[in-house]
């Protein structure tokens, strides 16, 4: 058996510590959420039960948990759709150089390096100065787009930089219009990347706190509601909420990954059928 060098064990140990540091808090919250009815917020556990999960579905004195969840879900879907549509349109537009394209690109991604709380403060001030109501579906929606759109743009720019234009040329040679080429050729080819952009848009919006803090208005999103619970909740019900929201996020990621897998299988099958037809 080949003897591994000492550096291998050092790197393996470092990686194990990294994984523990990364996922340890989440696992700890998951374990403590199964405390018994008399359990507290710390170890040792006082029994094992689903008491705190049931408590989430009862009338809560801590806030509007499920209303906040519905708002975060709706906002995440709005941000996801907008991010995908704008990113694709921008990716198509930036395939050709135009006057001011470089400046516009840097303006679009500048929000990534500006502190999130300043973005939230700025958007809130603009809405107040214009006499518009600060609300999660308007100002909150706009502030979150400053976070998700740059990621979508960068992904689409990378995708279109590698895109083989011969597919479009072949479609046009067959008489396809510009819109038909985009709909029947370009979009199906970049579909897996679109799903990636959609996943980025939804997950970044769903758990965004800082950019929503001063732009959500009177109705909290789920991250704001959870933050509020940390100041007045002294039971493991907050851990149960954290566990459920984590499982929901993982489920969303699994759905997107499964969709990509299904699309890959269909594309492979279509290619195989086309090869047999030839």
Describe this structure in words.
With 278 residues, this protein is mostly helical. It has a domain at 63-232: MetI-like (MetI-like fold), CATH 1.10.3720.10. The chain is 72% helix and 0% strand. Helix 3 runs parallel beside helix 6 (139-161), helix 5 (116-129) packs across helix 6 (139-161) and helix 8 packs antiparallel against helix 11 (237-277). The chain starts with 5 loop residues before the first helix and ends with a helix. The relative contact order is 0.14.
Features:
single chain, 278 residues, mainly alpha, MetI-like fold, 11 helices, 72% helix, globular
CATH class of one domain: Mainly Alpha
Calculate the mean pLDDT score and round it: 88
**CATH homologous superfamily label of one domain:** MetI-like
Question: What share of the residues lie within helices?
Answer: over 70%
Q: What does the radius of gyration come to?
A: 24 Å
User: Under CATH, the topology of one domain is which?
Assistant: MetI-like fold
Total strands: the figure is: 0
- The CATH architecture of one domain is Orthogonal Bundle
Low-confidence stretches: none
Written as H for each helix and E for each strand, in order along the chain, the element string is HHHHHHHHHHH
Task: Tell the overall outline.
Answer: globular
Instruction: Summarize the biggest pleated sheet.
Output: none
Beta fraction of the residues?
under 5%
Task: Give the structural class.
Answer: mainly alpha
What is the number of helices? 11
- Write down the oligomeric state: single chain
Terminal CA distance = 50 Å
